[in-house]
Design brief:
By secondary structure, this protein is mainly alpha-helical. Helices cover about 75% and strands about 10% of the residues. It has five helices and three strands. Strand 1 and strand 2 (about 15-20) form a beta hairpin.
Length: about 170
């Protein structure tokens, strides 16, 4: 027999909750995936920003090293070489300034807390769609009251379902 609902007992501190977890229907699964896909566009943008920040940091380090080398060479070289090195250094300082400004702007894009909040929205929708039972609302209220994330709840639910699958396999 293929099981599509699971009766699960959860406890938070001293409170007990009996809920029923339902496997998602094709429509529910599509809705959750669509919602998650929409929300992950924000993740993708953040990841691209993180990659750009890494590239910028490497370029800044490279340019700063070049400036140090130019400074050392200026102490050793003749007047013509010094002029060329100073012109190059001036261009490097301008590029460094531009890169540091870009880095600051990218660092202010979608903060990690907002990324986590988006993920929580997906987990909350999953909870609303797949969890049933008389104690569902009390569980949701308790989670919010105690500051427990829906993602943490899902880890616990998935653990319980795994235990139920193992029991069924051994029977």
């Amino acid at each position: 027999m293929i099981q599509t609902t699971y009766s699960i007992n959860l406890s938070i501190d001293a409170e007990e909750f009996s809920i029923t977890l339902c496997e998602p229907s094709a429509e529910q699964k599509a809705r959750i995936e669509s919602f998650a896909k929409e929300k992950t566009k924000e993740f993708d943008a953040r990841l691209q920003d993180e990659e750009k920040l890494g590239e910028i940091a490497l370029r800044i380090e490279e340019l700063e090293q070049t400036l140090k080398i130019n400074d050392a060479l200026c102490k050793e070289e003749g007047i013509l070489q010094k002029i060329n090195l100073l012109i190059e250094s001036k261009k490097i300082v301008k590029e460094l300034s531009d890169l540091k400004r870009q880095k600051r702007q990218l660092s202010q894009s979608l903060p990690l807390e907002e990324v986590n909040a988006v993920f929580e929205e997906v987990m909350r929708l999953k909870f609303q769609m797949l969890v049933r039972g008389d104690e569902k609302e009390r569980l949701a209220s308790t989670l919010l009251q105690k500051g427990i994330s829906f993602s943490k709840l899902w880890k616990e639910i998935e653990s319980e379902v795994s235990v139920l699958h193992q029991k069924k396999s051994s029977d």
